[in-house]
Amino acid sequence: MLLKKIYFSAVCLLPIHIAFAQLPQDSRRAGGIAVIPITAEVTQIFYEQSPVLISQEGVQRYAVFGIPMSAPLGTLTLKTNHKPIEIEVKPYQYAEQHLSVKNQDYVNPKQEQLDRYAVEAKEQNDIYRSFSQSTWTQLPSFIRPTAGKFSNSFGRKRFFNQEERAPHSGLDIPAPIGQKVIAPADGIIIQTGNYFFNGNTVLIDHGQGLISMFCHLSKIEVTKGQHITQGELLGLVGNTGRATGAHLHWGMSLNNARVDPQLFIK
């Protein structure tokens, strides 16, 4: 009888494991992701006018919600066409990072540099707020965009030459100049360019408000509007823009919230 129970449990667990294969990790903190099972009645979900991604995993549908870095602790409410969804944002302690920058323009930019940054920031924020219909129903899996050790730098409170700046909104991967950077998942190149702080940059639209960003490249190998598949070359690691050394800055934005890219990697 015991053997029958063990066998039955193993068979039941297998489909559950497959259903979660493509989903990011659930981490309900500022800068994290909430993976929420939803019923068939729920067809639209919004947070502060931003649509929330919905993925079909086997027979179950999920809302995949990016929690903003600015989200306060406690209950956060998502609006739907059915019943509101409430999630609990939990405490999470991010580290501090003190960096020495030789070029003072990157610490206290001149007015013309600030003007340039304002234009670039608006361009990028417009992309983050965009929501394109996906060609997929099941959220695609993600792979590492380049080789190297993750620095766990996401969310760190940063100090440049002892002056406090905004928390780090991406993940840094130290790597030599010229190392290949590849697409972590399928998508469309929504923008490329050279930005004041980010240097040579590529942005990919993966669908339903999921955007990835790759900064400080030494070379860009793709063009705006290009369809890209997982593993295709995006560019080469560099140290352009505000960088204290050669590395890839990998950012992820979900429903206009910057979230920890490590949550997409199994």
Automatic annotation (TrEMBL):
Residues 1-21 form the signal peptide. Keywords: Signal. CDD domains: M23_peptidase. Pfam families: Peptidase_M23. One of its GO terms (molecular function) is metalloendopeptidase activity. InterPro entries: Cell_wall_metabolism_enzyme, Dup_hybrid_motif, M23ase_b-sheet_dom. Residues 167-261 form the M23ase beta-sheet core domain. Gene3D superfamilies: Glucose Permease (Domain IIA), Peptidoglycan hydrolase domains. This is M23ase beta-sheet core domain-containing protein. The lineage of its organism: Bacteria, Pseudomonadati, Pseudomonadota, Gammaproteobacteria, Moraxellales.
